[in-house]
Queue: 2 jobs
Job 1
Amino acid sequence: MSETLRVGIGEDVAAAAVATPAASRLLRQNPIGPPGSPRQVGAGQAKARLVGLFAGMVAAAVVVVVGILAGTGELAAPPPGLPGPDPLVRFGLPVARTVHDLTASLTVGLLVLAVWAVAPEPRTAPTRLAGVRLAMVRAASVSAGAWLMSAVAVLVFTVADIAGVSVRSAGFLEVLASFASTVDLGRALWVSVLLVIVVAAVTTMSSRVVTAAWAAGLALLALLPLALTGHASGSTDHQNSVSSLALHLIGVAVWVGGLGALLLMARTLGSQLPAVVRRYSTLAGWCFVLVTLSGLVNAWLRLGSLSALTSVYGLLVLGKIAALGLLGLAGWRHRTAVIPRLDGSGGRRAFLRLAGVELLVMGATMGLAVALSRSAPPLGEHVVQHGGEALLGFPVPPPMTAVTYLTKSHVDLLWLSVAAAALGWYLLAALRLRRRGESWAPLRTVSWVAGCLALVFLTSGGPAVYGRVSFSGHMLQHLGLMIVVPLLLVPAEPIKLALRSIAPRPDGSVGVRETLLTVLHSRPLRVLGDPIVAAQLIIGTLVASYYYTGAFTFSMFTHTGHVLMTALFLLTGYLSMWAFLGVDRGPASRPGTPRLRLLLLGLTGLFFAAFGFTLMGSETVLAIDWWAQLGLVDQASLLHDQQAGGKIAAAAGFLPLLVLGIAVATRRAHSGVLAGTVQHR
Ligand code: HEM
């Protein structure tokens, strides 16, 4: 076992001892320095303090969750004669969920900081994990192990809780298996368990930074199925409940996990601590905003009115707001007093002390959060929606007219957040260039703003509302996402702006700029950015989404499917426009000649038209179950609407052909002009 690793493990897995007897055995077998040496004693005391801190955090969380649920009667035994979960399940589920959320956060925090905040070891290849980064990724494999155990416990106890059976009862495993394979909640928890297994395996074996980065992404992904469970699944506005909780969980995991990782690895980070703390502080600031906004939105969707704040659920929400206030204060103190003095004497101790208190408050807040998710909200499950409104999460719109198409709306918080973040980043980056005296063409900014607004209109405006109740509306929305939004965003050259506005990291660590360069140089992007591949991608997406895969029906019935389809159309559209237009390539490979790109654009257009004509000739109604659920059963009008969708696709196909036509005509008129214009300015 390498010296760096042993030291890393010895010093930092102390807290993990909280989670696994194996780690505590490791601690005993690997003393630091000769017995009784000041370093050995110092290290021993530090380990004890660390174990104490993490034990304290878990204890605070468990005491809070059990205390609250006991107080609200959620842990009470079912009335005699009535079936219900036994004490093991009643107490085990909230405790397992709390440990789950804590270990999930720690795993995410360790991986995110190891990959995006810590500098590589001197004299080692920056792409390889070594020293501190390796110790952090290995520590993440230990916490991922604890996460896995608690995730399995959550799945087992959830089944027992809902089925009202004991985990020891005969046939429980069959019940568990059928629950995990046939019930949405069971499937979501099972998918999360499988993702955690992959994270644990990857963090145990990975030796490259890029692999650890994928593990961090997978760990965040493993949190998302949880947003589909709990109250989000039954609430009135299911779509936004799930999205806001998903954003909330991501913000919490990076924020709480990052601080836990900092404290766990403070000694190993050594002289790197100040730089890593500063990078974490920026991240924590954004997480604070994300957690606050998503938490308030989520709470509002369940409370529905301010008067509901007097309910048990409302009071718990107020408790969380107070805890957030405390954490905000700690964050402000870090920024104004502690971090500026971090390099000075006593600075480190001041940081560790405040961060330790903060971690305990975060532990208690996590306990409060689980108690909240186990308490009945005053709204949602009690408000009954009927027919289409229950399915859509919003009232069924009147027949589509130009006016209703432009005026109807149902805000999609997820894509609204994406558009707002993209717009905010772009304007700040362009401003930074301007402040540096560098020019940035205003037309690019206008194009980007228009692209973000188009995204909001297509995902929250009339296109989104009618995209759920009519095939032609769905086609119009998705072609808008695939063609209009990318056609506005790509010419705004965001890659060029990012590479010019973000400063490179001075110490070899991986920041946003370095991550972008890695992606731009990567083989997958070289392939996907090739216009020949891009043409196949955009055609394949269109065909596979509507035909042969069931993706269309899946995207209509499930929130996950809906989000994935929107993301797929946006992404393939963006990649194709990026390849066809040949601008904003940065260091990525050149995308073929303008002639080849125009030709491919034309062919793609032809294909869209052919696809449209196929739909216009179709006799089979696509996603018929969905329309039936909405009460739309008249086959003739469904087919008529589907054929209208076909006309829209055909018309969309003529757009590129039009561009091709204009280009050829212009070329004829001004031969030699075209090549110049699309060259990289
Ligand atoms: C403005 C402050 C906050 C509000 C209004 C808020 C609101 C919420 C709401 C409504 C939920 C969903 C509960 C349910 O399923 O019914 C939730 C979940 C959660 N919140 Fe917050 N929150 C806030 C701050 C925080 C903070 C500061 C943390 C952690 C430090 C946190 C951690 C969590 C966690 C871990 C969950 C998921 C619990 C689970 O189901 O496992 N929240 N929050």
Job 2
Amino acid sequence: MLAKSLRIRALARGLCAGLTCLAHGVGVSSAQTGADLELERAILSTFEQINAVPRCSKDEARISAWLVEWAGARGLAVSSDAHRNVLITVPATAGWEDRPGVVLQAHMDMVCAKAEGSAHDFTRDPIPVIRDGDWVRATGTTLGADDGIGIALALTLVERATKPHPKLEVLITADEEKDMSGAAGLDPGLLTGTRYINLDSEDDATVTLGAAGGLHTDIELPLAMTPLAAEMTVFDLKVSGLLGGHSGLDIDKNRPNANILIAELLLGAFPFQLTGIEGGGVANAIATSAVAGIAVAAGDVAALERRVADFAADARVRYPAEAGMTLTLTRAANALQPAASAEASANAVRLLAAIPQGVTAWSEEFDGLPESSSNIGIVTSTDRALAIATFQRSFRADHLQALAQRIAAHARAAGATSIQRGSFPAWPPNTGTGLYRAVLASYSKLFGAPMATSVVHAGLECGYIAAKYPAMEIVSIGPTLENVHTSNERLKVSSLPKLWNLLQEVVQAP
Ligand SMILES: [Zn+2]
């Protein structure tokens, strides 16, 4: 999670790049000590163990059990609740019992997304951790560093702390990526600590102090399919190879959504009949590909081909960063599919195109930060209906509701129904806490540079914690990650010892 704010990077590290370490064959800075390399190894080894346990959202039984076992094997008190959240309690160092306790929190589930053509089975296969210079990545799938690396950092601190610390509560929540049902179900009397460090941020030079709230609006449009007239020609219209990205963090980067591109292309065109439409894979990601089955009369085939070519050329101008964007029109293998009527098909794409996509309002407090946004994550059709999964985000609960109502109104106007689900509260920023000051002080003490502060247009469980524990001091930090929620996800290795040392310093700060 990365946000818009003024940042001053730790220059020291940049200057020393280019020296190669034999053991790892990576670019390491001469500033990196043997202790740092040892920490990298320890944290990555724990991360690899975590990556051997399948843990897509809602499939967390195995990872929850693995965490309970990990703690039990080390003689630590551990509990789990009905939501599969796990709490590991680490006693204070002798003499530190009177210090305020600290909570370290990460989430155990991950977004399971893979590149086209990948045969990876997320319900069974371990996710490899591939070294690539100063980064690690997977092969054609999400890496799971969001947020498996947060868990690995916390567990490595429990195992390897070299400084005294107060009582630690390591809270690993379930289902952050889908509905935040773990955080939502957390018992408000469970935690005893008064300082809370969330480890789900993605920039090692930034401390996060606030996050947007969100909710899902799911739409269902009846779309009856009947046999096609014999003279119709059926095509598969496909958009693929888009950058996509996180529907909160990347929503302000002018990234096209494949579901919208398909709708825009078909909007107001010649009569066509939909035989089916599929796009996107997860609600909180900008869709990278979508395909629509469309039938047109023989007389409109040339117009369709021209339209696709013109639209593709125009899209390349509108989205110059989308080097991989591909629009294809191919004759469908099965020309005998049932289809929706031309009227119902036009109504369906009109609805798709009418639903707000992107940033709908900008923050008045934080320059350049989206305040409210919406994304069409998943579009699917059956022989009876079209389902559209959308996700709204906002720092303001009233604006969030208004945006969802707007979408519900579009749905109603098209003859569709809609439901809201999975709402989670925003986390209001508070710059007045001792914990926040401790983070800034520790960072400049360790790295000789100021740390940036940010507020993010994405979901963090901290909103629930702030609502359940009003007195809790809360910050969010994390090592540098890129392209989360996509098969290009990668983790910067040298940011691991940096984050770990910062964490240890903050945990024991007065
Ligand atoms: Zn996360």
